[in-house]
Amino acid sequence: MLQPKDRILVALDTPDVGAAQDLSRALQGHVGGVKLGLEFFNFNGPQGVRAVTHGDEAETPRGQSTPNQPFFLDLKFHDIPNTVAGAVRGVVPLGPKIINVHASGGPAMMKAALDAANFAAEPLGVVRPMVIAVTVLTSMDEDDLGAVGQQGPAVEQVVRLAELTQKCGLDGVVCSAREISAIRKACGPDFKLIVPGIRPEGSDTGDQKRTMTPKQAVEAGADYLVIGRPITQAYNPVAAAKAIADSIG
Ligand SMILES: O=C(O)c1cc(=O)[nH]c(=O)n1[C@@H]1O[C@H](COP(=O)(O)O)[C@@H](O)[C@H]1O
């Protein structure tokens, strides 16, 4: 059973390696890990990821050390299967706990990502990262889905993509807290649900549209909460993380 704080993954959405390192160090032990995504990776690349997650071992050659901060490498791969497989092989030696693709890339692409993760992890003697798929971005509501040709309630599309993801053998999905109970019904208790769009009571929603509080998300059955700005933009990020952990405890 995870402790409440272990369910929190803090999104370090910044171009600044130093700022990400400082936050990661300050939050160590207070949360379950950090998330490095497209903004951080496109500014700083794999070396930046190592600098944040491996601390002083930033210069360690590829694949030769385990991270001292568990991390979700959120690069949301979405391309043809061969290209996604190559991209996955490239990031597994960094030692992420979780990596992701877009479920809408389809079954062949998702299976290629999973195979590539197994293939890359085996010679390194490491546990392969959890491979999960993004269903419908939490920044989209039904109007946004309609604009890209998806009619009907978001939950229907999310559950359809979650079922497809599970059929492809992946470990779980990214979804909003609003879809958790429907996915649990369709995919069972062991399928991992990683949930962004988390907003403590009274905090700014910003660009997120399908939101819930940390407590609501955990009560609904989330495994991990991905939380960025409510922690990183707080006056005291560690205090904000602790308050969130207390609220779900
Ligand atoms: O894959 C993700 O992590 C993700 C998927 C999704 O549907 N929505 C979503 O917000 N995210 C990520 O979760 C984080 C949420 O950050 P905040 O909105 O600042 O809490 C960002 O880093 C997003 O890239």
TrEMBL record:
Catalytic activity: orotidine 5'-phosphate + H(+) = UMP + CO2
Binding site for substrate: 13, 35, 74-83, 138, 199, 208, 228-229
Record Pfam families: OMPdecase
Keyword 4Fe-4S: no
Orotidine 5'-phosphate decarboxylase domain: residues covered: 7-244
Cited PANTHER family: OROTIDINE 5'-PHOSPHATE DECARBOXYLASE
The protein's name: Orotidine 5'-phosphate decarboxylase
Source organism (scientific name): Aestuariispira insulae
